[in-house]
Design goal:
About 30% of the residues lie in helices and about 30% in strands. It contains eleven helices and 20 strands. The chain has helices at about 45-50, 100-105, 145-150, 150-165, 180-190, 205-215, 230-245, 260-270, 290-295, 310-320, 340-350; strands spanning about 5-15, 15-20, 30-40, 55, 55-60, 65, 70-75, 90, 95, 115, 130-135, 135-140, 170-175, 195-200, 215-220, 250-255, 270-280, 300-305, 330-335, 355-360. The chain is globular, with a radius of gyration of 21 Å. The chain has about 350 residues and is α/β, with parallel strands linked by helices.
Length: about 350
């Protein structure tokens, strides 16, 4: 391949990124080089941008951001046979080892030795070119726009959550947090035949949007800080919502916490009927209080959901191409690569639902 310049968005420190030329990756025998066309920005990008780290793991040096990307294959390694130059692809940003116990039993999303694009020391995908092994790209059809393709990865995460929660026809699901993840969880729930969806968020704009797209009922969420009388408050909130929605006061089959807000965790447990399922997917503080007595008394299945497993990307692509999930209304702002700071600040303000960066320097 002819040598070309390669610009990327580098996180320098908290709240500071620079778009500058970075080393063009070398293509190995099993690798492909992708000319990145679009990259979605999500909550984990924002977490890195805000804190220069993720949870308890702080970054030690600057790194290229990004992990929700799609583009065109422009070079392939000598041994690559399943992908060709010119193929349109989505990039799977979690690189699992294939050798550990978890990988061997199909839990590649919690591989013991995984590398994640955008998390030090692995460069992210928010650059003009990106190199990875060929089996970490998934082909996409021409009918999928680049903007939509930049949102396939978070939809794959929602599909993994649906697997974990066992979404099915006839269920009632409450989703706390109507940001990108919560929105895609609701879209997936609707595609999977869930009967009733309750959308809850602190933003009136977001619950109205959720109601217009997928939710049967929408409500303003609890306060940002946990009240002192939170056990009684959570139960009363649940009772009021179920009454106003005309749903069974017993509670919902599945509650999905997609906001990371501690009050929503308590409310989610209160909303879930005995024997039901509570899913924690939102990222907030590393340590939160949790109503363990209620979990035990109601014999709830409490599960976490992270990343994706085999088939989630292809399922996401199929749902969009078939029209069962419409990603276009979620994309509310598009920025060029050169305006990456503005894109991240837009996500930080929370004014936009889904921000996509198109690969223009």
């Amino acid at each position: 391949m002819t040598q070309v310049s390669n610009y990327g968005c580098i996180l320098i420190k908290a709240l500071s990124v620079e778009v500058k030329e970075v080393t063009l990756p070398v293509v190995g025998r099993e690798d492909v080089m992708v000319k990145v066309e679009s990259t979605g920005i999500c909550g984990s990008d924002l977490h890195l941008y805000n804190h220069f780290g993720f949870g308890k793991v702080m970054m030690r040096k600057p790194n290229i951001l990004g992990h929700e990307s799609a583009g065109t294959v422009v070079e392939v390694g000598h041994n690559v046979t399943d992908v060709a130059i010119g193929d349109r692809v989505c990039i799977e940003p979690t690189m699992f080892c294939r050798k550990c116990h978890n990988c061997k039993i199909g839990k590649t999303n919690v591989c013991r030795n995984f590398r994640q694009a955008g998390m030090e020391p692995t460069p992210g995908t928010l650059q003009q070119y990106y190199v990875c092994e060929s089996d970490f790209v998934v082909k996409i059809p021409d009918s999928l726009s680049w903007e939509e393709a930049g949102c396939i990865q978070p939809l794959a995460i929602a599909i993994q959550l649906a697997k974990r929660a066992k979404f099915a026809a006839g269920q009632t699901v409450a989703v706390f947090g109507c940001g990108p993840l919560g929105a895609l969880v609701m879209a997936t729930a609707r595609a999977y035949g869930v009967s009733k969806i309750v959308a809850i968020d602190i933003s009136q704009k977001r619950v109205d949007f959720a109601k217009s797209m997928w939710a049967d009922y929408s409500f303003i969420s609890p306060p940002k800080e946990l009240p002192q009388d939170y056990p009684d408050w959570a139960a009363a909130f649940k009772d009021q919502v179920m009454k106003d929605a005309g749903l069974d006061p017993w509670g919902v089959d599945i509650a999905v916490e997609a906001s990371g807000a501690e009050p929503c965790m308590h409310a989610g447990i209160a909303f879930t009927h005995p024997g039901g399922t509570y899913v924690q997917a939102g990222l907030g503080r590393a340590i939160n209080s949790f109503p363990t007595v209620e979990v035990v008394a109601k014999e709830l299945d409490v599960i976490g959901s992270v990343r994706y497993t085999a088939g989630c990307f292809q399922t996401a692509i199929d749902l969009v191409v078939s029209g069962k999930v419409d990603l276009k209304p979620l994309i509310t702002a598009i920025f060029p690569l050169s305006r990456s700071t503005e894109a991240l600040e837009a996500v930080r303000r929370g004014d936009d639902l889904k921000v996509v960066i198109m690969n223009q320097q």
